[in-house]
UniProtKB/TrEMBL annotation:
The keyword DNA repair does not apply. Its main location: nucleus. Belongs to the PUR DNA-binding protein family. The gene is PURG. GO terms for cellular component: nucleus. Keywords: Acetylation, Activator, DNA-binding, Nucleus, Transcription, Transcription regulation. InterPro entries: PUR-bd_fam (IPR006628). It is found in: Nucleus. It comes from Anabas testudineus. This is Purine-rich element binding protein G. The lineage of its organism: Eukaryota, Metazoa, Chordata, Craniata, Vertebrata. Pfam families: PurA (PF04845). GO terms for molecular function: DNA-binding transcription factor activity, RNA polymerase II-specific; purine-rich negative regulatory element binding; RNA polymerase II transcription regulatory region sequence-specific DNA binding.
Length: 284
């Protein structure tokens, strides 16, 4: 895609190209002396839809605007557009949830199109919920006659703080065809790596592999407090538990206790194998 220069009566614009997508710096000053800095944009095409991921900066910090554009085929070529916004500090949590949905989608059987009954026209397959500040994000993987899709719905609590860089509006929704989840997640990951909030409370999940399993440890927070999410992944399956901070001391005590128990059992088994081997050698 080409860089498109945009002119503002009170702005300074500099555009450039890098990595196959648009890097741009666009400073806008409006009548209220608020400024908005447009840093980068990335486009993802999924079926008949286009998704634009724009990283912007305001006095309140960096944020991501995701716009969905659908162009219908008809006499008038109807164009529909929807969007949602989130802070860059919240973007890693969205990326982590997208990974869960991708794993689930590929583990489940592919939809059979017309085989989906009318009773399950909008069947919900998997749901997740993310909360940050006064904004809630509801993620629902659904299925209908046309296939599977992920609906991401953002709601904003009424009251002070509903305006600002998120824009006006109480609820915003985008719908992602399931076939493009990986490409969308990868585009989001690139923007997080290049423009992520260094002061974000969200950390990359630490992980390690044991045999054919991988374990992920991810610290997060919501209105109920701070927690550690532990995920066990053995393709195509994922199991997850969430441990609240207030229970972590007891978890640690039990881990130590059962580690000692497992080592004792391991030693007993090792001694039995040694005794059995010695007995067989004596018989020979």
């Amino acid at each position: 895609s080409h860089c498109v220069n945009r002119v503002s009566n009170r702005g300074i614009l500099r555009t450039g190209r890098g990595g196959g997508w648009v890097h741009r710096v666009h400073v806008v000053l409006d009548a209220s002396s608020h400024f908005r800095l447009e840093l980068a944009s990335k486009r993802v095409d999924i079926q008949k839809k286009r998704f634009y991921l724009d990283v912007k900066q305001s006095v309140r910090g960096r944020f991501l605007k995701i716009a969905e554009v659908w162009i219908g085929r008809g006499r008038h070529d109807n164009i529909r557009k929807s969007k949602l916004t989130l802070s860059m500090s919240m973007a890693p949590a969205l990326r982590y949830s997208l990974g869960d949905f991708i794993d689930y989608y590929h583990a489940a059987l592919s939809p059979t199109g017309s085989a989906v009954s009318d009773d399950h026209a909008h069947r919900v397959l998997k749901s997740e919920f993310i909360e940050r500040d006064n904004r809630k994000y509801f993620l629902d993987l659904k299925e209908n006659q046309r296939g599977r899709f992920l609906r991401i719905r953002q709601t904003v609590s009424k009251g002070h703080g509903t305006m600002g860089y998120y824009g006006q509006g109480i609820e915003q929704t985008i719908v992602l065809p399931a076939q493009g989840l990986i490409e969308f997640r990868d585009a989001l990951s690139q923007l997080i790596e290049d423009y992520g909030d260094e002061d974000s409370d969200e950390r990359e999940a630490a992980s390690f592999r044991v045999d054919n399993k991988r374990f992920y440890f991810d610290v997060g927070s919501n209105r109920y407090g701070i927690f550690l999410k532990i995920s066990e992944v053995r393709q195509p399956y994922r199991n997850t538990i969430t441990v609240p901070l207030k229970a972590w001391a007891r978890f640690g005590e039990n881990f130590i206790r059962y580690e000692e128990e497992m080592r004792r059992i391991f030693s007993c088994h090792k001694e039995k194998r040694t005794d059995a081997r010695q007995d067989s050698e004596e018989e020979v």
